[in-house]
Amino acid sequence: MEINQMDFSLTTEQRDIQKAAEEFAKGEFDPDAALEYDEKQEFPSSIWKKACELGFVGIHFPEEYGGPGFGILENALITEAFCRQDSGIGMALALSDCGSEMILRHGDENQKREVLSYIAQGEGLITMAVLEEGYSLAPLSTTAKINKEGYIIEGEKTFVTLGRLATYMIVVCQTKSDDPHAQSVILLEAKADNVEAVSMGKRMGMRMVPMDRVSFNHIRAPKENKIGLEHKGYWQLREILNELRIDAGAMGVGIAQGGLDRALGYAKKREQFGKTIVNFDAIRNKLADMYMDVELARLVIYKAAWTFDKGRPDYRCSLMAKSVASRTAYKVTYDALQIHGGLGYMTEGHIEHFFRDAKALDLFLEPGNIQRRQLAEEITGKRI
Amino acid sequence: MEIIKYTEEHKKFREALRNFLEKEVTPHVDEWEEAGIVPRSIWKKMGEQGFLCMNLPNEYGGADADFLCSVILTEELAKTHHTGLAAPLHSDIVVPYISSFGSEELKKRYLPGCISGDIVTALAMTEPNAGSDLASMGTTAVEEGNNVVINGQKTFISNGILCDLLVLAARDPSEENPYQALDLYLVEADTPGFEKAKRLSKMGWRSQDTAELYFSDCKVPKENRLGMKGGGFLMLMQNLQQERLMCAIAAVAAAECIMDRTITYCKEETEFGKPLSKSQENQFKIVEMTTEVKLGRTFLDKLIVEHMEGKNIVVEVSMAKYWTTEMAMRVADGCLALHGGYGSLEENPIARAWRDARVMSIFAGTNEIMKGIAAKFMGL
Question: What fold, for A234-380?
C-alpha cells in the first residue's frame, strides 16, 4: 500500500539507501584528502568514479537510462549523507550530474539514452551554463541563431560548474531579441565543440567544484541537440531550477548536520574549567538550537522532494528549500566553528571548510535573496 | 560632537602612515597571503619609520606617543586588506608586558629592538588543552640554579614563526594554587630547547604566521621572569583590558572598511539592469549594517577615551569585544551577500575580509569568555 497521507518516516528502501550512502562516505571520504582537494581547488575524480560505480550518481534516472529509477528524495538523501561527511566532496559529487535533469525532464529518447547512462556510469561529467554577468535570466545575452542546419551560439556564461571538465554542456540561449522569454536549451559536447572555458580563479568556498567563465564563439550545434521545445527554454529552466534547489537544499542540510555532528563530538570530549564543555549552558543550549535548525530545514527539503516525487511539485517549498537550508547551514556551521574555539579557525580542525562551503552554497546558482523575491511574488501575486 | 579629540599632529601622523602603508604594504599583501607570512623587512621598515611601540618612552627610542596613535595604526592597517603584519599585537599587546612588568635591565636589553623592528614579539598563552581555561596550563617552569627550565607546548601563537622574543606563560608545578602558579618569562627565539614547529593553515589571516611552539628542557635565566614570582595571572588580567580593546578597535575598523568598499561596489555594479544600491532591499540592508557600524564606533570611541583616562572598564571592554567582533562578522557576511556570486571569488576583496573577520570572536578570549567576565564583574 502506498502511503499518501502525512507520514514523516522514510521507507525501508530509503533508509537502506541513506545508510549505504553514509557508509560509502565514511569509507571513501578521507578527511585529510578532503583538505587537500579543497586547498588545490580540485574535483575529487577518483571518489566520484567510485560513487558512480556503486550507483550513487543518477539514482533518480529511470532504468532504461542507466539508473535504478528512484525519485529526487532518494537523490536528496544521498546528497545529504555525502555533505554530512564532507561538505566539499559532497557538493562536488552532487553537482557531477548538474543539469542532467534538463535532459531527464525535457530531452528526447536519443538524448536520454546517450547522455543519462553516460553520466550515471561515471564516464564523464555534465554541466549547465545558465548565469551571465548581471544575473539576468531574461533576456540572456548568449544567443542561438537558428538556420537550416541548426544553431550558431554566441556569448559568454559565468559560474559554470566543472566547465573545463565536463563532457556535456547544456546551454540556455536567447532565440528571439524581441521576447525576453524566448530561449532554447542546447546540448553541446563541450570539448569536441571547442567551447572555451577559463577558471574564475580561487574561491572562498565550494572549491572542489571548479567554476568557469565559458565563451561561445560561433559554436555550431545541429538541430537535434535542442532539448525540449524551441523558444520555451526559459520556462524549462525555471522548472529545472526548482528541482535543483531541492538538491541544493539537501546539500545545506547535510553540511549543517555535519557541522552539528562535529560540534557535538568536540563538545563532549573537550575539557575546560574542570569539566567537558558540553556541560556549560552556553554550549549545550547552542547545540539544542543547532539541532532545531537542522531538523526544521530537513523537513522543508524532504517535503519539497516528496511532493515532487508524488507528482505534486510544491513550487513555494522548492523556493524555500535552498534558501532555508543554506541559511541553516551557515548558522549551524558558524556555531560549530565557535564551539571548536581556536581549533575551529584552523584548517586541521576540519570544521572551517564546512563554514566556508555553507556560505558558498548560499551564493551558488542564485543568491538567497532571489528565492526570497520569487517567493514574495508567489505569495503576493504581484511581480515587480 | 566628536568623542575623541584628534589633534593636528594625529591627523598628520595618520596621513603619513597611510601613505607608507599604501606604498610599502598594500601592493604586497597578495604575495604575503600566498606565502603565509610577511617578510621581516616590513617589520624593519615599520620600525625605521617609528611605527612600532610608539608609546614607549624616548629613553628606549620610543616616541612617547599617546594611545590614539595605536588606535590610528590599527585603523589604518585594517585598510591594507590583510592581517599578517600584526604590529598592534606586538606594540600594544605583547611589548606592554615587558614595559609594564619587566626589570630595568630587561627593558634596556629588549625595548630598543622592539621599537626598531629588529625584535618581533609573540605572546604564548594558549595550549592544546588550555584555551579559555588559562589555569589549566600544562607548560611548566622549574627553577634550577640561576635558570628556569621550561617544558611544554603552545599553540595558535600569532607571530609564532617570525618572533625573536616570546612572552611565555608557564606554571610552577610545585605551587598548588593554580592562580599563583603562573609566571611570564621572556624567551629568546634561539634558546636551545625552544622549537618553532609547524605554521598552521587557517581559514583567514593567511599572511599571519600562526604556529605551534615546543619547549623541551629549555633553560631561561631567572632574571627573564616578568614581575614578582607568582604574579603571572594578575599581569595577564591587568593587560587584558587593553588587549580586548585592541580587538574591538580592529573589529570596528574592519567593519567600516568593508562597509565603505561595499557601498562603492553597490553604486557601481548593476544587477538586473540597475545599480545594486538602487533596490530598496539592498538600501535597507546597507542602512541596517551602517547603523550597526556607527553604534559600534560610538561605543568604542567612548571606551578609548575612558581607557586613556585610566578607568577600569573591564565590563564594557568585554562587552565591546564580544559585540563589535560579532558585528564585524555580520557586516562582512551581509556585504558578501550583496556581492552575490562574485563575492565568492577571491579576486574580490570581500572574500578575504569575510574569512579574516571570523576569527575575531574567538581570539583574545572567546566571546563566551567575554560574556562570562562581564557577568562576573556585574555581580551576576
Answer: Butyryl-CoA Dehydrogenase, subunit A; domain 3 (1.20.140)
Contact check, Cβ <8 Å, A369/B155: no
What are B350's three cell numbers?
Answer: 570581500
Whether A204 and chain B come into contact, CB under 8 Å, resolves to yes
Is the N-terminal amide bond of A139 cis, ω within 30° of 0? yes
> B358 vs A135: CB contact, 8 Å cut-off?
no
Q: Is A47 helix (H, G, I), strand (E, B) or coil?
A: helix
Q: Which of A39, A131, A363 is facing B344, going by the closest CB pair? A: A363
CA distances from A135 to A60, A157, A367, B227, B273 (A): 29, 10, 10, 62, 9
A322 grid coordinates = 535552498
Can you tell me the ipTM of this complex?
0.96
Determine, for residues B362 and A345 on separate chains, whether the beta-carbon distance falls below 8 Å. yes
CATH 3.40.50.150 describes domain A126-229: no
Give percent of chain B above pLDDT 90: 94
Q: Where in chain A is the domain with CATH 1.20.140.10?
A: 234-380
Distance from CA of B60 to the nearest CA of A (A): 35
CA distance B71 to B74: 5
| Cβ–Cβ contact B288 with A under 8 A | no
Of A272, A338, A363, which has the smallest distance from its Cβ to B361's Cβ?
A: A338
| Numbered ranges of CATH 2.40.110.10 in chain A | 126-229
The pTM for the full model equals 0.97
Residues in chain B closer than 8 A to A337 (CB atoms): 358
Contacts of A54 (CB under 8 A, 6+ apart): A20, A24
Given an 8 Å threshold on Cβ–Cβ distance, is B358 in contact with A345?
yes
Residue B255's nearest CA partner among B283, B288, B293, B299 is B293
- For B126-178, how does the pLDDT look when each residue is reduced to its tens digit (9 = 90+)? 999 998 888 889 999 999 999 999 999 999 999 999 999 999 999 999 999 98
Q: What is the topology classification, in CATH, of domain A12-120?
A: Butyryl-Coa Dehydrogenase, subunit A; domain 1 (1.10.540)
